[in-house]
Design brief:
The complex is a heterodimer of chains A (370) and B (513). Chain A is mainly alpha-helical. Chain A has helices spanning 2-6, 21-46, 51-63, 66-91, 99-116, 123-152, 156-177, 208-227, 229-239, 241-246, 251-278, 289-299, 304-328, 332-354, 363-369; strands at 11-15, 355-359. The longest helix of chain A is centred in the middle third of the chain and has 30 residues, at 123-152. Chain B has 3 domains: 6-239, 3-Layer(aba) Sandwich (Rossmann fold), CATH 3.40.50.300; 254-342 and 425-513, Rossmann fold (3-Layer(aba) Sandwich), CATH 3.40.50.300; 356-424, no CATH class. Chain B has a 6-stranded mixed sheet with strand order 6-7-8-3-9-10, sandwiched between helices. Chain B has a 6-stranded mixed sheet with strand order 16-17-18-13-19-20, with helices on both faces. In chain B, strands 2-1-4-5 form a 4-stranded antiparallel sheet, with helices on one face. Chain B is built from 17 helices and 20 strands. Chain B is globular. Classes of the chains: A mainly alpha (370), B alpha/beta (513). Chains A and B meet through strand 1, helix 9 and helix 10 of A and strand 1, helix 10, helix 11 and helix 12 of B.
């Protein structure tokens, strides 16, 4: 009896029925708290700093001054913009890992007229030309892998990934072509005196226009994915291609169209980076946000409204992490460790939203029950 | 039959999934040495769950399992093997590129090196003992479904199973193959093996089993000595109330040619001929049953008519009421609909093709109608209304129309799919295995819906696997064999034997045995 008792599995995992929303959020909050506690313990043992101070520093790093809030919001807008571009593609189960490259092509597309036409055409025309070039460049970069996928069913994951490197090389080539001053191997601020091709400021807030544009985009994508025929087709193709064909959806056309959109929005973000933020072009200007954006979109289950929250979370973690490193003189990795732990808990709790773990009753208890 | 010692005793077995679903509720059941026990129950009555606990896939929440009188704990399939329990699943678990012998010894840890030859000898020995026909050196992909099943059974015997569990073994077999299987099962029984067989087909239960145990809604209801029970009694016990087992077959009213297929030839992507010069006509107000062993071109035929399957040669003409014809080949489903041909298709793969599992009922209704209306936005109100109507009229058991369809049971999923397809008032209705996996009540609902379409003048093409149903439901039966038309016969006069022979040999003819 004892022998067979010990052979009973300790627990088993079962799928949950749908959870009410408040319980789902309770699980998420608990996960964050547990993550914070673990971070605290690690902080105390590893670097012997009061964890509460660390959290305070993270908060102040992201939101401490109004300037910091603006920078956080700006970072958020760019990340959210790229995530919005990726969401329709991922919803369609097209693993677009080329967000970096597509945005970078947008950057190149915006920079080219900015340098070549700066001062030669009226500013408003220049900005429009930059916008169009950026959007087209991003779209082309997304269309190439999409066309191959639609025509020859190539693997889009590898294809989009490789396109990133091509984009980096292209940008790096043009950085040398347009380097300023000569020999600097960088472009520097473009049209610093004339501010030609710079997106206008609203009041004193340099980034407000960027943020507003991305907010409008968020609402637009939300409506597009949820209420339009195109959005519905994207969901059907993503869930099941045979079903899509069965109801006469032209799958290839949907793939091409959606990737065109995805790349175009990446291009738009590239334009915002050049025209609205940095006013220069570097190979690292996108800074891996084409990949972070994948996480933002997945965490929010491709719901653009939730993506506002998840992009805020990721930007907060990264800015908080760098603030810790600066203030306490720790190396960069420590902040990243904390951010990583928190993310682990936040992503990990998704498991508990879908499954529950039932501990095994021992046979004895069963007998009492019976 | 003397029931001396139970080889297997289940006592108070309970298995829950989540908080609310009780798949098995306090089931107690004995299996004796040398008997064939049929486990009978509607879908979702917990048969497969119960058997999965015996084969180590699930672990019971409560209750005890005794094998040969000893309390045991079956944590994984290996434990089950060690206890001499072997399960033959509905879906075969074989490696296509390996031979029968290699598949059979796969995963076994025998002393010494890999010795396929010795294994092959033992396999031949087992085969001779029970009357199987297996070539140990034949590759799986060269085998027919029934041969693959034989390999699965031999695999279990090779590992020394004394208790065999077969989950719906006859679903994929012709009547002749079923007879062969049953002969083998009787040999095994004579050798002292115990067999549990899960099946929906009552006549098979009566044919093969010694005892029938009935499950209903996860509970053990009762058991019968097979010789003392009738099909009607079994059905009533299984469903819980009296059911009539007859399917209506109204006379066709004013049949007109609707779909005329000539010399249709289809090749798969890898060049294999799937349909070979198939010609037939389907008429309005008639049910054309299509019989054949699974994978003999049924899927390709329906998909070709629906515009989903590229065709090599031939023609598929849609005949209008005034006699004018329109060619369907080369058109996709959308173009066919735009021609004004109202064609509905209930495909075999319900959640993989007919519906989107993660979408709710009303979003699934939209699949057919989302293009309607001008502008870029979808109309969500009318699909919602349609969903509510289907739920009400077909008595779909669902928490709400906002429930994802994959959370519904098989019968309800099928009602949603059929409900949507017939809501567009089709003139042609294609159905593939419309009642596969459905319980008796749902099956009869579906037969009734199909008959109503027939009465409304729809040309119905019904691909089925249960010959008894095909013979009761169809006006005409077309038998496919190896992608060719083996014959077209009158459903009212055809016999099961005749159809069965035509399924295995073009034109039927004399039996080989």
């Amino acid at each position: 009896m004892n022998n067979s008792l010990s052979k009973v599995p300790l627990f088993h995992i079962t799928r949950r029925k749908e959870l009410p929303w408040y319980r789902a959020w309770l699980i998420r909050v608990i996960a964050v708290i547990m993550g914070l506690i673990l971070c605290g313990i690690i902080t105390m043992f590893l670097v012997k700093i009061n964890p509460l101070d660390v959290y305070k520093t993270m908060l102040s790093g992201a939101f401490g001054t109004s300037r910091r809030i603006w920078v956080t919001a700006q970072n958020m807008a760019i990340l959210l913009g790229i995530s919005l571009a990726l969401a329709p593609a991922f919803k369609m189960r097209f693993w677009n890992l080329g967000g970096d490259g597509q945005t970078l092509m947008g950057v190149l597309g915006a920079t080219t007229p900015m340098i070549l036409l700066g001062g030669k055409v009226p500013n408003i025309i220049l900005i429009l030309i930059m916008l169009v070039c950026a959007v087209v460049a991003g779209a082309i970069w997304a269309l190439i892998p999409a066309a191959f996928k639609a025509r020859w069913n190539t693997n889009e994951t590898l294809f989009t990934l490789m396109m990133n490197y091509v984009a980096i090389q292209l940008v790096s080539f043009f950085v040398v072509v347009w380097e300023n001053p000569k020999g600097a191997s960088k472009i520097g601020i473009i049209n610093q005196d004339t501010m030609a091709g710079w997106l206008p400021q609203i009041g004193n807030n340099q980034y407000l226009l960027n943020i507003l544009i991305v907010l409008v985009l968020t609402v637009a994508i939300y409506i597009y994915m949820r209420y339009t025929k195109h959005g519905y087709e994207i969901s059907v193709v993503g869930e099941s291609e045979p079903t899509a064909r069965y109801v006469g959806i032209k799958v290839k056309r949907v793939i091409l169209r959606t990737m065109l959109l995805s790349g175009a929005i990446c291009g738009l973000v590239g334009f915002l980076l050049v025209s609205g933020t940095s006013h220069t072009m570097t190979t690292t200007i996108v800074n891996g946000r084409g990949f972070t954006g994948v996480m933002v979109a997945w965490l929010a289950k491709f719901n653009p409204i939730f993506m506002i929250l998840t992009s805020l979370l990721l930007v907060f973690l990264s800015r908080g992490a760098s603030e810790i490193s600066t203030i306490y003189g720790l190396n960069d990795s420590f902040g990243s460790i904390l951010a990583g732990i928190l993310l682990f808990f936040i992503i990990g709790c998704e498991f508990f939203l879908n499954y529950q773990i039932a501990l095994k009753k021992t046979r004895k208890e069963v007998k009492i029950d019976a | 039959m003397d029931h001396k010692s139970p080889i297997l005793e289940l006592q108070h077995i309970t298995k829950r999934f989540g908080d609310k679903v009780v798949a098995n509720d306090d089931v107690s059941l004995n299996v004796y040495k040398g008997e064939i026990l049929a486990l009978l129950g509607e879908n979702g009555s917990g048969k497969t769950t119960l058997m999965n606990m015996l084969s180590g896939i699930y672990f019971p929440d409560e209750g005890e399992i005794y094998v040969n009188g000893n309390l045991v704990s079956i944590r994984d399939p290996k434990d089950a093997f060690n206890l001499g329990i072997g399960m033959i699943h509905q879906h075969f678990k074989l490696v296509d590129v390996l031979t029968a012998a290699e598949n059979i010894i796969l995963g076994l840890k025998e002393k010494g090196g890999l010795n396929v030859k010795a294994a092959a000898e033992r396999i031949t020995e087992i085969c001779q003992k029970y009357g199987f026909e297996v070539d140990p050196y034949q590759k799986i992909y060269e085998m027919s479904v029934s041969q693959k099943q034989t390999v699965e059974i031999v695999k279990v015997l090779y590992r020394g199973a004394d208790l065999l569990i077969l989950d719906e073994p006859t679903a994929v077999l012709t009547p002749q193959e079923t007879d062969k299987l049953f002969a083998v099962l009787r040999n095994m029984k004579a050798d002292g093996k115990s067999i549990i067989i899960i099946t929906h087909k009552l006549h098979e239960v009566l044919d093969i089993s010694d005892r029938v145990a009935i499950l209903r809604k996860g509970k053990y209801i009762c058991d019968y000595e097979t010789k003392n029970v009738t099909a009607q009694e079994l059905t009533d016990a299984m469903v819980g109330h009296a059911v009539t087992l007859n399917i209506d077959r109204p006379e066709p009213v004013d049949p007109k040619e609707r779909i005329r297929i000539k010399d249709l030839t289809i090749r798969s992507i890898d060049g294999v001929v799937r349909l070979n010069h198939v010609s037939f006509t389907a008429c309005s107000g008639e049910i054309l049953g299509i019989a054949g062993i699974a994978g003999n071109g049924q899927k390709e035929l329906l998909e070709a008519i629906a515009g989903l399957q590229p065709v090599e040669t031939g023609s598929i003409a849609y005949v209008n009421d005034d006699g004018s014809e329109e060619e369907l080949i080369g058109k996709d489903p959308l173009e066919i609909a735009e021609m004004g041909v109202s064609l509905s298709f209930v495909p075999e793969d319900r959640l993989g093709m007919g519906l989107v599992g993660s979408m709710d009922l009303s979003e699934n209704m939209m699949l057919r109608s989302f293009r309607q209306g001008k502008g870029i936005f979808t109309d969500r109100k009318s699909p919602h209304k349609l969903a509510e109507r289907v739920v009400e009229e077909l008595e779909v058991n669902t928490p709400s129309v906002e429930t994802p369809v994959r959370k519904l049971s098989g019968g309800n999923v099928q009602k949603v799919l059929v409900g949507r397809e017939i809501s567009s008032a089709p003139t042609v209705l294609l159905t593939a295995y419309a009642v596969r996996g459905l319980d008796i009540n749902s099956s009869y609902t579906i037969y009734d819906l199909i008959n109503r379409q027939k009465k409304a003048g729809v040309a119905v093409i019904y691909v089925g696997e249960d010959l008894d149903v095909l013979l009761e439901l169809s006006d005409k039966i077309l038998v496919l064999c190896g992608g060719e038309v083996s014959g077209i016969i009158d459903g009212r006069t055809a016999t099961k034997n005749e159809v069965g022979l035509m399924m295995t040999k073009i034109g039927g003819g004399e039996a080989d045995e």
